[in-house]
Amino acid sequence: MILLSPLGALGRTSLGFLASIGRVALFALATLRHMVSPPFYGREFAVALLNIGWLSLPVVGLTAIFTGAALALQIYAGGARFNAEAVVPQIVAIGMVRELGPVLVGLMIAARVTSSIAAEIATMKVTEQIDALVTLSTNPMKYLTAPRVLAALLVVPCLVGVGDIIGIFGGYAVATGSLGFNAAAYIKNTVDFLEPLDIISSLVKGCVFGGIAALMGCYYGMNSGRGAQGVGRATKGSVEAAAVLILAANFLLTGIFFSL
Amino acid sequence: MIALSDVHKTFGSNAVLKGVNLTIESGTSMVIIGGSGTGKSVLLKSVLGLVHPDSGLITLDGKDVTKGDRDAFLARFGMLFQGGALFDSLTVWQNVAFRLLRGSLKRPKSEAREIAIEKLRRVGLKPDVADRFPAELSGGMQKRVGLARAIAAEPEIIFFDEPTTGLDPIMSGVINDLIREIVVEMGATAMTITHDMTSVRAIADHVAMLHGGVIQWTGPVKDMDQSGDPYLDQFIAGRAEGPIEAVR
Ligand SMILES: Nc1ncnc2c1ncn2[C@@H]1O[C@H](COP(=O)(O)OP(=O)(O)OP(=O)(O)O)[C@@H](O)[C@H]1O
Ligand SMILES: [Mg+2]
After folding, report:
1. Which residues are registered as beta bridge partners of B206?
2. B248 pLDDT exceeds 60?
3. Which atom of ligand 1 is nearest to the CA of B195?
4. What pLDDT, on the 0 to 100 scale, is given for residue B93?
5. Mutual orientation of helices A183-193 and A146-178 as an angle, nearest 10°?
6. Domain limits, chain A
7. For A135, which of B77, B83, B103 is closest by C-beta distance?
8. Can you give the pTM of this predicted structure?
9. What is the ipTM of this complex?
10. CA-nearest residue of chain B to A127?
11. Winning range, highest mean pLDDT, from A162-171, B66-75, B100-109
């Protein structure tokens, strides 16, 4: 019996894990259904666009510019070991667009947007505002979840695009400012090197990561426990889940885009 | 008519409702009393489907509330939550007019705002609170905004969860009169939870006392003082000694 109990615990954990995957999948399906069926809440959608998109620009821009700049320094130093310093523009471009741009923007969105969505909705749950919505004939999934997820699906790819450009510019600034690259040649190398698939993969990743971030915020918020502790747990759980899922999805998408 | 029969609800190991039977006739005012934590709020939420009972049947006009068109069902109800449950991202008037600004009852913004201000006036709030946010109001004011929101769309059935808690005696009187007026003049059905015996006498046609997970006593308000039920007597008199253990 004693030997079996760890197995039992393992089984219970696995079952719990599978059950929660099922619940998240059902939640995502319900969200999709509410996104395409009326009524639509335009004001909620506009506010979500503003919060998720416009107000995230500063943090996305700062993250991207420092990352692009550091990347240029690293590649220059690393490339020098085998006399390949000249590849800085190409590697910065590909590194930012294919990988770092979407992932870092996704993680920043998980930190900034997922947490705030989860905390807001969990507080609404704890203070009975979600119940109040229901009694006022308003479906909380339609009113709270659908506009936020839709806004994230649309606006996070734009943020990723902006992040990619700013990141490349960060590399450009360091390379031309202190590593002695020629400005015109740097830009030409970057533009010539990037292929449409690089950019498409970047934007698709942005869309998926945005969807994950908003969905996790809503899911954990709606399923929050009671009291301030419930709100805290929901917020923490949502950010953890969003970050891990974004990194896992990144691996999957990279595989799909570049090795198949 | 709302009818509950043999309704049970358990949270984890905490059995809250253990077979509640209760009938509320249309156009009458039912007041639910009972000790703190006996499940009065859970009872109201069960009728609205916000809490799902483990077993038992709840009907509205003979139809099972869990079946049929939920939107049409909810459109007949208004509810004041114990904690107010105001939307803190919206201003006071937008809270009150929530139902009038979207969905099937949607109307022009200016008209919705006028109705909201009129309802605020009826709960004793001046028009200048209309553009403030709920967080800027006192607890009692928030309660009254919640009340205004519950009655804004003039629903047929209104649930009030402790409408006068946190209000001064004069304002309590105003709210009691308002609830009575809604029932008598508009013909609404009201179900009110309160701990305030003055309110009970002012609002109720019928009284039900919830204790130990069941309806301990129910009857017309005029019979309340001669019920001969020791639990009810202790509750009305507010005595610490009696069949209801005060210190658990
Ligand atoms: N969502 C929930 N999860 C777990 N337990 C709950 C939940 N809602 C209510 N309870 C429990 O049910 C019991 C009854 O709660 P309820 O809010 O109905 O009490 P009440 O009669 O309205 O009390 P009060 O007069 O203090 O408002 C309490 O023990 C409470 O802890
Ligand atoms: Mg209560």
Report:
1. B30, B220
2. no
3. 25
4. 96
5. 140
6. 41-257
7. B77
8. 0.90
9. 0.91
10. B85
11. A162-171
